[in-house]
Design brief:
Length: about 170
Amino acid sequence: MTDSQKHNLLTPRQEVFCREYLIDFNATQAAVRAGYSSRSAKHLGSRLLKNANVQLCVQNLMDERNRRLQIDSDYVLRQAVALHERCMQQVEPKTQRGKEVTDSQGNAVYEFDATNALKALELIGRHVNVAAFKEKIEMTGDTMNAHFLIAPMTGVKAQTFAQNENDVDGR
């Protein structure tokens, strides 16, 4: 079955839900805007997002929008870098009540947007897969000695090699 055939398996209301979901990625609000009851919208929105055909439709709509707007991972990364650099640079001197703020030596005081600079840097770090920003580290393969790989990241010193799975569990 092709993507367009699966898309045709959706009811008109489900198709509207998919389009509405792309507005704010809020399943409850998308369900209400698509005409579902506000009392059951939270449950229905969640259920609709689990539907494989709805997921495919949402993904297709997102892909279409990204092509139309020419947004790809390179664009996002370039914008995040530009934002970070802008937030970090010294911009206009700080003013209060129309007067330039100066330090004790009479130098102009500059501000930068540390919060948004950090957010942009985190986005860049996640995008380029910097391990420092990972909340979870996924491992595959032989995990019997995995604690030796994780030890340097956690600050825990690995003492000996595990001889069996019981050594890993600490039993």
